[in-house]
Every structure is written in C-alpha cells, then in structure tokens.
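[step 3/7] fold_predict: job queued, chain A
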Amino acid sequence: MSFLDCLALSLPIVQAPMAGVSTPELAAAVCNSGGLGSLGLGATDAAGARAMIEALRERTDRAFNVNLFVHSAATPDVNRDAAWLEWLTPLFEEFGGTAPTTLREIYTSFGNDEAMLRMLVETRPPVVSFHFGVPLEASLSALRSRGIMLMATATNLQEAETIDRAGIDVIIAQGIEAGGHRGVFNPDDADDGLGTIALTRLLTRKLRRPVVAAGGIMDGAGISAVLDLGAVAAQLGTAFIACPESAADDGYRTALAGPGASHTVLTKLISGRPARALANRFTDLARTLADRRAPDYPIAYDAGKALHAAARARGEHGFGAHWAGQGAPLSRAMPAAALVATLAKEIEETRKHRAHRSRF
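[step 4/7] structure written:
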C-alpha cells in the first residue's frame, strides 16, 4: 500500500512540524484539506504535547504527524557558556535587559524522555517523526506496537541508511535549502550540504524506503518536481508560516514578507545547531564572532530566546529565530486550507502542462 493510501491522504503534501510555529489549528486545516498536518513537540513536555494532540483531534479525524527531537545530550562548559553570555551582555543592556547568569538545557531529547514515550503510546498519533537522529529500538518497538507509522529526517545517505536499518517506515530527505534546523545527526561532523534534488534522487535510487522530499519547496511545480524524482510526497514548512493559523508573531511575518526573505543564512548562533533563518541582527553577529564557539544545543538556545524576549519587549524583532528556507520569497499569506487548495491546483496544472508539451 502506498504512503498516501496508508494515511488516506488525497494530496502528496506534508506540512512541516515546525516547533513553535505549527499549531493544532494549522495542522487540522492541512489534514482536513487532504494533506498531512504536523505538530512539533520537541519544544514542549509530555503534558504540553498531550494537550496539543487533544486539541488537534478536536479539529480533525484525519491522520496527522507529531515530531520529536532526538538530539544528543548537551555537554555544559562553564567557561564557554560564561564567555558566550559575556559576549551577548552589551546587547541585553541595549534593550534594558540582563543576561542570564547560567544557561539551561531547555529541551529534553526524546531519547531520554520516558514520559513523552508513554504519552505517545497512550495517545497513539497516526504518525511520529524524528529529527536529529533515531531513538533506541525499545522506543521504536513500543510505538510500532501501537500501529504508528514512523518517519525520520536524513540529510545524507549515511543518515538515511541508519534510518533504514532501524526499520523506520519513511525517510524525510532534507535538502540544504530547508528552513529551520538541519536534521544532521552530529552537528560537529562535516556537512556535505546536499540539495533537495540531489538528496531525494540519491535516496530513492539507493534505498527502498518511501522518501518525502523537504527543502525549498513552495508551490505545486516544486511538489511535482520532487514527485518526478521518486518522492512519495513533499514536505513544506516555510510555505505555511504566513498562514493565519500559524503561531508566527508579527515581527516574523513582517520579516518573511520583506526583502530579507531573499537572504537566508545557516547559523549556529541562535540555538547552537545549524539552522537556516532569515538574515537579521542576530545572524549578523557572525561578523563579530571571531573564535568564539556557541554553547551546545539547546543550551545556546536558552540565551537566544532570552535575548529575543528582551529585544522584542523594546520593539526590536531582529533577534527572533525567524527560520525560513531558500524559497521564502515565494511565500503567500493565505489561510492554510486555501494554500493547500492552491497547491493542489498548481500540481494539476503542472501535470497538464507536461502532458501538453509531450505531444510536441
């Protein structure tokens, strides 16, 4: 049975599970329109995740996806963390704030979160996906025993092979164009930076698992292109940020709609892991970074969130984690259901155009 048939999807569209941006309202709108809506649970605990799943189920009876972070535990470094805070202190002072005196590991990895696993086994979401790695076999087996489809992100063939060996059902091929955090298993390893086209084709040729393509896809033509490469669906994140159902704040929406959308950068400064964001005052700090190293993820994110809060309180939105992919200039602000309908129409128009050209 195909990926779409297994989940009773009418469209090969997956809304990316953007932690902090995706909402039950957004996911439900996508689900009810024939795609796979998603919730990002990596930034909350088991109780918060349960509440989000319950809120989504109140709005749809269709299949949906929930996403977890499977990052390695951070290694605190008192001297490095203190130096990082000292470097950021003048910025806190600029906005009348005070830099934290210590930094915390604000997100628990699913690999160490037994409460989250118990909650997922109890609530039985149709799909569970993983970012930054693969959980232990015991966790995978517990989820499989509940009939849950499993997906995981790969940025290269080696990561995809690890996912394949773990018996995970679907591989998400995340190209370098994608917004938000790179799904790399080890952020200290060299990153080949494979694009969505090359990575999708590589994985569909080398492995037998279904592949969902992600990165830079914003319209029906892009979806059709990755389907031609062998993907079973396309995952879109940046395309849904401007939807009114997303949790993006006004500063984020304004930045996405402005000229800065044409300039995205990969940065570790905000969270401690490489992530693609709209260029802003935070990403521009790379010019003064010198030989400083950001604390490990997600310790660095504790400082990043605190700085953003201090700046936003004074009306400055340039320190937000405005994650966005390279297709950001193609963003369209419309309700999620209207966007999915538009994407479906564009897919059909692309197919018709291709059929017309083939006659000549």
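[step 5/7] annotate
The mean pLDDT is 96.
Residues 3-71+108-261+322-358 form a domain with the TIM Barrel fold (CATH 3.20.20.70).
exit 0
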